[in-house]
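Recall from the previous chapter that SMILES is a line notation for molecules. Here it describes pyridoxal-5'-phosphate.
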Amino acid sequence: MIYCDSAATTPLNENVIVEMNKISSTVFGNPSSIHKFGQESRAIIERSRLKIANLLGCDLSEIIFTGCGTESNNIAMLGLLNKGDHLITTSYEHPAVLKTAHELELKGVEVTYIKPDQNGIINCNEIKSAIKENTKLVSVMHVNNELGTENSIEEISQTTNDMGVLFHTDAVQSIGKKNITLRNTKIDLLSLSAHKFYGPKGIGALYMRNGVNLMPTYFGGGQEKDLRPGTENISYIHGMAIALELAVKDCQDWHKKLSKLESLFLNNLKNENIKYTVNGKNLIGGILNITFHDILSQDLVIALDMKGYAISGGSACSSGSVKTSTTLQEIKMDQNLAQRTVRISFGKNLTENDINGLSKAITSIINKSNLNAK
Ligand SMILES: Cc1ncc(COP(=O)(O)O)c(C=O)c1O
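With both inputs in hand, we obtain:
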């Protein structure tokens, strides 16, 4: 099987597995214990925190370990907003933000949903116009998970900062793909997740600028500044730090390789006269949201799976769902086109041979389906 669904998740990097196994098999103390066993675990956590902070360009006191990207978003949003406050977010966020916003509405928080334009980009001026007296938080995703389009979070966070409003970004799809120096931005809160950059699933982090205060969402033993209490997963935290270090180091080379693979793929399709459209502008790279005009997305996804290629149906926002995706609706894509749209996301293990195989498989499936339709 050739895996082309890296935006959903990535396989664990082999060095990360080795490092995590070392920790899992030798270190087990509770990091909150005072004795040597506890100190050993605590040291691993704090070294990982320092490594991640250095890689993201922030202070180590600004990194909170969480269980995943979803949890980071929840802790940030639920921890900040109360009845009567105003939240501005976007209508094409991942459900980890959208559903949290809906929950906040039920609690009396006023929410404004800014729509992306047809290219999948959020206009900073629309955010600016929506800010009012009781606006406490603006939350805009960095890179959209279905389209791969990148929002200018530097510009938006500068605007919110000028207007005295806090800014949160769900950067789950960008951290590991694009380097950032947080202290050079006005971002106050940022969510990330290790399994998107070849780290383990079930571990994430929240960057929280010093001086920002959140109310706790969970209650317990006080770990992670009381925001994510519970005994820490030492080997996963260690694995996330190593995975991020490798991703940051590899970032430029990977982008070069990626743009070659993407051009090869699209040129192959063009040469075979396949009718397709790449959706969205200002793409981060690595995520292609493509409409194949001559085949339904679910037919293509299933036929490719049978030929040994894993891609994702762009019209299904969660597994098993055949509903048109909220994101495609929000960029005003015609329903008929949305049903012919898939997400192909290339990962680090792919070769030119794999890409040639994928384009050949797509061509043969579409040609066969065209023949059957005649
Ligand atoms: C943009 C975005 N936010 C949040 C998440 C959720 O992250 P996690 O699986 O770590 O909870 C995802 C995962 O697909 C995502 O793409």
